[in-house]
Amino acid sequence: MKSRTLTAVVLNGSIVLMPLLTGCQSKKVEKLAVPVKVAAVELNSSGGGSRYSATIIPRTEVDLSFKVAGYVDSLQQVRGIDGRMRDVQEGDRISAGAVLARVRQSDYQVKVKEAESQASEAKSGIDASKAQYQEALSDIASRKSQLAEAEASYVKAKLDYDRAQNLFDGQSLTKANYDAARAQYEVTTAKVETARSQIQMIQAQADAAKANINVIQAKSSTAQAVVQEARIPLQDTALRSPLNGIVLQKSVERGTLVSAGTRGFTVADTSSVKAVFGVADIVVPEMKLGRTLAIESETMPGKEFRGQITSVFPAADQNSRAFNVEVTIQNPESLLRPNMIVSLRVATNQTTSAQLVVSLNAVLKARNNADGYQVFVLEERGERQIVRLRDVKLGQSYGNTVAVTEGLREGERVITTGGTMVNDGDQVKVIP
């Protein structure tokens, strides 16, 4: 629909009013209602005990990641309900040391074989050098024997020559005999020098062979170290479970390309489990290590589990101001499973009068006061539902609820889920 309005224009020095057609004003776009969950403010008289909701966590939970890269070519085989073998899957029981998955080994086997070949060559070089060394030592022994014979002949020839010299000087020996003695002496002297020279040469060869053995042995040690280093990645192609337990999560299949650090499985030991819940600081002194508590689950009506407190966290959670408590429960039949919600009642020595309480999930840190708290309160405006941010003062915690000493009235409804998605005055839609 269009509307008729007048506007003033100047024509020939005179002001004239002229009609102007305008369109309708555009409608304001309304913000969609935010879905939220609410709970009523209740009057609570806890007497001498409080009921808590707790979450079951495994005794031990481990993420198994691959140490080497490659394609997954095999998974552990287990027998299915049909009696046929199949790949391991979530929920299957596993044993410590079981190979859950294996990366293709061929690439790593080639490196091991190359390293082993180099180590074998180095070892062969050591054997050859040792043989040369032993041969040199044997030759030295033989040459020393020859030297001993040459030295014996030299000593005899020296005596004969000295005697011949004396006789020749006294003209008691012919020159021919003297020359023969002298020649024999010179020959034996040359033989001794030659034998000694050969021994020195062979000794040098033996020393060189021995030094070569040390060098090759060092190379061989290095080659053996390379072999060991090459075998480590080959061994790491197998992803093994470190514990007896169950598979909580499986992230790979046959043919998956993984890199070092890729998580393949999450496994857990559930032979015993822990129920974790939070308590107020006033209750912490009563959470004695070793205290026995009873635990129940809605999935198993009438069945009670008993466990002992094994840990009380030393610091409170910054958001809920609660101290986490762990109760360890034996779980031989695996009835309690990870992330299951259970309930337990803790008897305390604290006695309290009836007071207003709200869920811990409804409480928010105040936006304008670092030490304050607020909640979103649901208000009905005809067919519309809006929320108002209201300051509150908190009291003691009771399980998963907390007392409100100021700011709320019994029966008012507060947001328990979705409070971080709305602002003061926003329209919401309550969902179950």
Q: Could you describe the 3D structure shown?
A:
The protein has helices at residues 106-169, 175-235; strands at residues 3-11, 14-22, 34-40, 42-44, 49-65, 70-75, 77-79, 85-87, 93-94, 99-103, 238-240, 245-250, 257-258, 263-279, 292-296, 304-312, 323-330, 341-347, 355-359, 364-365, 373-381, 384-398, 401-406, 413-417, 428-430. It has 432 residues and is an alpha+beta fold. A hairpin with a 7-residue loop joins strand 20 and strand 21 (373-381). Helix 1 (106-169) packs antiparallel against helix 2 (175-235). It folds into three domains: 34-46 and 353-430, conserved putative lor/sdh protein from methanococcus maripaludis s2 fold (Beta Barrel), CATH 2.40.420.20; 49-103 and 245-347, Beta Barrel (Elongation Factor Tu (Ef-tu), domain 3); 107-235, Helix Hairpins.
Task: Describe this structure in a few short sentences.
Helices cover 29% and strands 38% of the residues. The protein is α+β, with helices and mostly antiparallel strands.
